Each structure stands twice: as C-alpha cells, then as structure tokens.
Amino acid sequence: MNLLLVEDDDGYAATLAEELRALDHAVTVAPDGMTALQAIDREPFDAAILDRMLPHMDGTAILRRLRESGKTLPVVMLSALGRSAEKVEGLEAGADDYVVKPTPAAELEARLKALVRGRQWTSTGGGTGDTICVGDITVSPTRFRAWRGERPLDLVKLELQLLAELARNAGTVLTRAMLIERVWGYDFEPTTNIVDVQIRALRRKLMADGEDDPIVTVRGVGYMLRD
Amino acid sequence: MPAPRSLRSLTLAFLLVFFLAVALTGFATYRATQRAIVELVDERIDALSDAVLSQTRPGDVAAIIGRINVITDERDTGNVGFMLTDAGGHWLGGNVRLARPLALGYSTLGRRDRITGLSAGRALVRDAGGGLTLTTIAETEPIDRENKARRRLYMLGFGSIVLIVLAGTALFGALVSRRIGEVRETARAIIDGDMQRRITVDPAGGAFAEQAATFNHMLDRIAELMRQISNVSNDIAHDMRTPLARLRGRLALIAARPDAAGLADEIGEAMDQCDALLAMFAATLRIAEVEGGDRRAGFASLDLGALVGEIGEMMTAVAAESGHELVLGRCAPVRIEGDRQLLSQALINLIENALRYTPPGVTITLAVTRAETGAGAAAEIMVRDNGPGIAPGDRALALRRFGRLEPSRHNAGHGLGLPLVDAVARLHRGTLSLEDAAPGLRVTIRLPIAGG
Hints:
heterodimer, A: alpha/beta, Rossmann fold, Arc Repressor Mutant, subunit A, five-stranded parallel sheet, B: alpha+beta, Beta-Lactamase, Heat Shock Protein 90, five-stranded antiparallel sheet, 9 helices
C-alpha cells in the first residue's frame, strides 16, 4: 500500500514508517497539516494515518478539510489519549478508524488493509441480502443462523457475531483489538484472552464433522477467515 | 443559660426576647393610660367638690345640700354623685348612699359598693367643716368600656407587629436557607464531578452575593488547578507514551533483523514490559476519564441482570482455561441508568482479578440482586470466590492506585483494576466494597436505582 503518515513527533514517525516499510508499504511522512494536504493533492495514497494532536492544524481539522474537498481515501486516526468522546469526535469528523497510540505496526497494517479491502467490496458484495457466503460457510446475522455446507451450526449469539465479522472480512486479518471493538462493542481491552477463547469455541463447532479449519491464526496479530 | 449556637436556637431566643419586650411595652402603655384616666376623673371630682364647698360656709348643712342640688341639676353631671354625712357617719343629703364608710381622700369604688348604675368609679371624701364630710363620686365605667376598645387596639397594634416580625423572620430564614441550599446543591454537584456548576450571584449585591462570588471564585480556582493536573496527565500520556511507542517500535525492528535471531526471547520480554507500561498509562487515563464525570451524559437504561448474565456466560470458557469454575448465580432483572461499556469493564475486571489472584480449582460466583436499603433501592453486583481472600488490613491497600498486595507483586497487573472499578461505581453514585466471604473474597458493587 502507498501510505501517508501525518505525525509531528519525528522519532515516532521515523520508527513507525520504518516498521511499515518493513511490512512492504511505501510511506510518506508529513509533519503537519499543510504538508499533508499538499501531499494528498499531489499523489494518490491508498490510505492515511493521521495523528490527532498536531501543531497549527489538528487532526480533525485536517480531516474535515480533506472530506470537504471530496477526498475519500481511508483515514485511520491516531491518538495519544484514547478517550471515547475523542474517538466519537474523530469518527464524526470523517475518520474510518481510530486507534490509540502506540499501535503496533502490525495492528495498524491490519486495520488499513481491512479498510482498503472494505472499500473495494462495497461494489461487488458477497451473497444476497445480509447473508454472507464464504467458501462453504453461510452466515445470516439477522436470522441468527449459520451453516457449514448443509450442516446448520449451533452457535451462541457472540459466536455468530464473531463468525459474521470474520466472514464479512474474509481474506483480511482482523486483530484482537478490532474484534473486541466490532464484535463485543467494547471501548476497552480486557486483559484476558476472551477473543482467543471465543475463536477456539467457534473453531470446534465449525470443525465438528472433521472438516478442515477455515480460520487462519496470524501469530501475534489476529485471525482471518479463508476466502 | 448557655449561649445559643445554632441558627435555630438563636432565632428562638431572639423571638422570645422580642415577645417579652412587646408584652412589657403593651402592659406599661396600658398602665400609663389607666393612670392618666384616673387622674382626670380625680381632677374632675376635686373640681366638683370645690364647686360645692367654695360657695358655702363650712358646716352649713342646708346651704351645702342646696348647692349639691344645683350642681346635680346641671347637664353634664349625670355620672357624678354627692353625699353629705355628719360626724357620726349619718346620711344628711345628696343623690347617692354608700354602703361603707370611706377614708378621707381618694378611693376607688367597685360593684361591691352597690351603688345603683355604678360599677366602677372614684370617690373623694372631704371635710366640709363642722364635723361634716362631703363625698364626691364619679363613674369611670364609660371609660372602662373604652378600656376594652383600647385593649383591642393594643392587641391589634402589637399583634400586627408580632405577626410582621414572625413573617419577616420566616421570610429571612427561607431566604437564607435557599441561599445555603444553593451552595449545598452546587457543592454536591461538584462532588459528583460536575466542575462547571456555579452559584448564581444576585446582581443587586449584598453579603450573600459577595459570598457567592467568592465561592465561585474558589471553584474557578479549583477547576483551573484540576485542569492543570489533567493537562499534566494528558502531557504524561502524550509525552511518555510516544517515546514508549518509539521504543517498542525500535524493539520490533530489531527483532525483525536477521542478526537478532538469537535474542528473540529477550526482545519479546522487553516488548512485553513496554506493553505493560503502556497498559498502565491506558488504565490511568481511563480512570481519569471516568472520574471526569463526562460519561454520565451517555447514561442509558439497561438491565444489569442481563448484562452480568451475558458477561458471565462469555467468561465461563475463559475461567475454564485457567482451571477455575465460573458459576452464574441468580441474576435478577434490575434496570438502572448507567454506562454499559464501563459496567462491562468493571465486571470483567473483577472476574479477571479473581482468575489472576486465586489458584486453579477456585469457584467464582456472580449474582445480581435488588436490595432495599435505608437510602432507597439499589442494585448489587456480587463477585465472590472461595479462594484465599484478602486480609482485612490489606483491603484498603487493594483499592489504592498502584496498591498491589505483596504475594501478587510478581503477578501480571498494574494495581489499577480495583481503583477503576471503584471509579466506575462512584460515577454511578454507587460504592465498591470488599468483604470476607469466609472463605474467599466477596466484591460488591452497589448502585442506586434512580427513582426506585
């Protein structure tokens, strides 16, 4: 991906850029709002990472400018504070995702990839209505039902929501933090491994008839449903 | 009498003294006018007896009686009487008779003197010469009737003064207590975390306005100091987390280098320590966010029983992984106004604490009950384990920030779990308590049910 990183802390920007480059992305660093807006006018980025606290023009102001000028590129906002009110503010200003500093580069990459892929999907879509089909897995979140092939799956609410989220993003790695946010709806991260435990339970039910494991574990990052 | 201290006893003492003064003034006025009337009547009978005796020779019975008759025929003497007696007290003439002998000088007459048509009067007994005595009598009765009117007047006059003072005192009291109430309400709002509350200052000025302005000024100062503290914690968040993030990033980059292959474990450990520090900052900031009170604005009605049930179900598998048993006790449906996120976090925190600080094999029980307390209805979330528990002396330490108990120091955790739960309970105007479950620990979050 071709990424723009807007961050005024030189050291942090350099480290994060280097980490992202190590993950095979092109990274342009802009230290302030004006530089960032000029860079976006000049070059088509796949996504931007925007620090919330910047000198002169803060993250939300840059974002508003960006959205007002019709730029729709996915933006992940970075914040050192991470209060829920600020998160809402960021999302309302037009951010696609909001993470608290310091996010490991792998986490940030996963979020950016999910956003970029999400954009590509909106036109194609998989399945009819709200029903999602991935391989031999079918999930219908509104009817609270799921199937593996012809076999109906007996899932509790949380497992079904987890499977639906994985299916919606099939082929994309979802991190534990992303799952906690989107499936559990929590604005905090429990210290116990509730995601792993839930994934294990889901896997058991998906593989009850000796089928192969449809969920890929990406060590240290998260989980992905094979598409 | 000890000096009255409270405002109430001061007011009562003031009213008592006031009533005493009013009563004394009334009584004195009454007595003074009474005396004035008697003096007037006395002057009149003195003048009348003069009118009889100055025109006659002393001892001349016939002349005196004649003079008496002349005077009693006059128009304005209908309420006066005369009596002439000799040295032996025998009646010689006049228009009244007295049942008892009167001494020389002035005396007061009443009903017991049985004079027809007279119920109250004054008499003057004078020596008329030659052993004769002339008694002159005047009624004070019509003046007595006037007395009643006067008494009514006093009652009305002094009564209205008393009423005005009573009403004034009550009004003043109400005014003072309204102002004090306003201060109390403001203080309470501040305690609850609404640092923006201020007392309205009366634009007309006065002592209360001055006090309110000073109070507001003090609150401004406190708010300013708190802002500074919060800025410091924001600065800590920004200025400490960013370098930590940088450090963590560096470590990740080093770990990825081919020549660091042999150091993977050490680097991983260092990164874990970074993460622990970052988690500590996150928890501190979360507590600050909760204590700020802003999240009250997002309170919504929720069923606490259902929420605890859901989390209990979810955490059962997590507990099983560490060899603990999580039992869902009775979760009564209790609706409260609250923050779903924070209540979930608090409950998960408590369960995680129980899992972290008790050995495998321990049973953890969750329950929600509705309790009626003296202060109204409350919802109680209980997390109980039958593990080793916390010694009574250590419970306060467990609630303190970064306060970690000795045997658990080597454990993961930053000592901010219970303080966060405590902050969440306080945000909901509730309490957190740790009790001995004999054996084990019972943690109770008690949340008031608004209007219940």
